[in-house]
Amino acid sequence: MEDCNRRIIAPSILAADWGNVAAEVARAEAAGGDWLHLDVMDGHFVPNISFGPQFVAAVRPRTGLTLDVHLMIERPDVYFPEFVKAGADRITVHVEAQHDVGDTLKKIRGSGCKCGLAINPDSDFALVEPWLDQIDLLLVMTVRPGFGGQAFMEAETMPKVAAGKAWRQKHGLSYHIEVDGGIDTETVAIAGAHGANVMVAGTSLFKAADMAESIELMREA
User: Fold this and answer.
1) pLDDT digits (tens, 9 = 90+) for 65-90
2) CB atoms within 10 A of CB 12
3) Which of 49, 76, 115, 146 could form a cystine bridge with 71, CB 3.0-4.6 A?
4) Which residues are catalytic?
5) What is the pLDDT of residues 161-199, one digit of tens each?
């Protein structure tokens, strides 16, 4: 069973210099990142396009860190096997996407990957409740998904983080609670106080003057 109270910092590759991906991956690992977060966007589920399984496959041999792949795509049930083959360790899908959520989660787990379920800021927490006993991670989006560099949406999202923690405790479950969007050395403390333990940070880490120092501040905040 994983320790779901341990603070995990997951630098988001979306904010890295893609012209030097190998160096950026090495930099994030050397700075003390625990996981690497990879946001996959299809231009349908979210209004942006990022990268596909080939990119994940290119990152995989360059690090031993956990690859935390977040599928912001309309049909995760169709495409997740390609990300398994590419070397993902964890695959998170959205409750709002067009798929049989329970079946997709079961198949991800059956493939040998850890499975996660994501919820958007404007969605009701009740949407994820039926599957909370089937996941390894609950991802509460703290911005509207699609683009990096947005402001942290505290009022809309922290009640969901708190609800995820309360549900986990009430039902004796052990999933991580992850937040993604607008996470920096200040907002990480807010998210942590509400129950999040996995902190995805892009701009605030890759654009920092000293990534290692920023990661340490996030770990201690």
Assistant:
1) 999 999 999 999 999 999 999 999 99
2) 26
3) 76
4) 39, 180
5) 999 999 999 999 999 999 999 999 999 999 999 999 999
Rounded to whole angstroms, the Cα distance separating 3 from 117 reads 18
Structure tokens at 27: 């930099």
Backbone angles phi, psi at 137, to 5 degrees: -155, 135
Residues 6+ apart with CB under 8 A from 188: 199, 201, 218, 221
- Give me the residue spans of the domains in the chain: 8-220
**Among 29, 28, 116, residue whose Cα is nearest residue 70:** 116
Q: Which CATH architecture has domain 8-220?
A: Alpha-Beta Barrel (3.20)
DSSP string, 58-88: HHGGG--SEEEEEEESS-HHHHHHHHHHHT-
Residue 83 exposed, middle or buried by CB count within 10 Å (0-12, 13-18, 19+)? buried
Helix (H, G, I), strand (E, B) or coil at 190: helix
Please give the backbone phi and psi of residue 120, each rounded to the nearest 5 degrees, phi first: -80, 160
Tokens of 31: 């700075």
pLDDT digits (tens, 9 = 90+) for 108-154: 999 999 999 999 999 999 999 999 999 999 999 999 987 777 889 99
Residue 8 CA to residue 139 CA, distance in Å, equals: 13
